[in-house]
Amino acid sequence: MLLAKSAKxxxxxxxxxxxxxxxxxxxxxxxxxxxxxxxxxxxxxxxxFGAKLEPKTGVIHGAGQDTQGYVDYSNLFPADQRPMMHxxxxxxxxxxxxVDEWRKRTMSALKNLEAQGQKTVLQIGLNMTEGLDDGSxxxxxxxxxxxxxxxxxxxxxxxxxxxxxxxxxxxEFEGEWNNYSPEGFVExxxxxxxRIREREIKDIATVWCxxxxxxxxxxxxxxxxxxxxxxxxDWWGVDIFSPEELPHPWLNEFxxxxxxxxxxxxxxxATPRYVGVHKNWMSWVRWYKPFFEMVRDRPEIKAISYINWxxxxxxxxxxxxxxxxxxxxxxxxxxxxxLYLEELNHDIWLHAKDAEQLTN
Length: 360
Description:
Belongs to the glycosyl hydrolase 26 family. Keywords: Glycosidase, Hydrolase. It is a single chain. By secondary structure, this protein is of the alpha/beta class. Helix content is 35%, strand content 18%. The protein has helices spanning 21-29, 67-74, 96-115, 139-144, 148-161, 182-198, 220-223, 249-260, 281-297, 311-318, 334-343, and strands at residues 3-8, 14-19, 59-64, 85-91, 121-127, 165-169, 204-210, 235-240, 265-270, 301-307, 349-350. The strands form two sheets. It has an eight-stranded parallel barrel with strand order 3-4-5-6-7-8-9-10.
């Protein structure tokens, strides 16, 4: 739990500051400035919009992206603070057999976590390009029925999992690497949402997830041409990577607009791109502290998913140009790990043990 600490500011007035005793002790031991661990405010009380799978209070603690990475990340935490939400990805354009293989892997992961006493919900990135991120823009083919069988198998999987799931349909929709047209994306999102809802599966929420800074923070007039409509969207989402994205005014406008639409916000993917953990205290100051300051400040944010990856390794494994994204694995630096775990110890965070709060 983070505790309020009184201190005098430069003009002699008392100002509330927020820091945990453990974080403050670490800074003092390392002879680092206390401002590295002190926040100007506590977490703002969360808004509640009554959305599907929205907790009334708190922020869902999530992580990914691969199963073993999720387990390694989870094991960093005490049993009662392990993440609730596990990220996974599926490309429906790869065909029904591919979807079925993903279903088997995901089901196995869920059963293993359940055997360890860890209640888990899913956060699913549903990709609609032919070949991951190849710029083919296949959302329009959803309307044409090209992927009907794969979509059916995907919905079968949602039903079989038997756990709450957040589905980021066509995530990072405005990113040029996806090459979605606004019209094609909107129609695909609506069709997939209708098909999920027709099945009447309990506890499935749709997420409209922007690429944010990775797509250049496009204008909101352009962004909203991709919007399927409030009736089709349960949550808004945005992915956050590089440190310069965190203070960008676009994000605050996005959160404001989400509130106007009465939608909670999920940080669908978050990782310290180009920073990593190995810069020790500077990693914390450059990315982690500003990230948590943003979450503290914006009561619309109700879920985050941290990507606990060594990006160079996965760049080689998957063939993407991620070599300079750095190592984001919390466990690889003692300072980042200590401060990160202490931050997630705040009672605003909802962990696996809190999964029952999602039923509404």
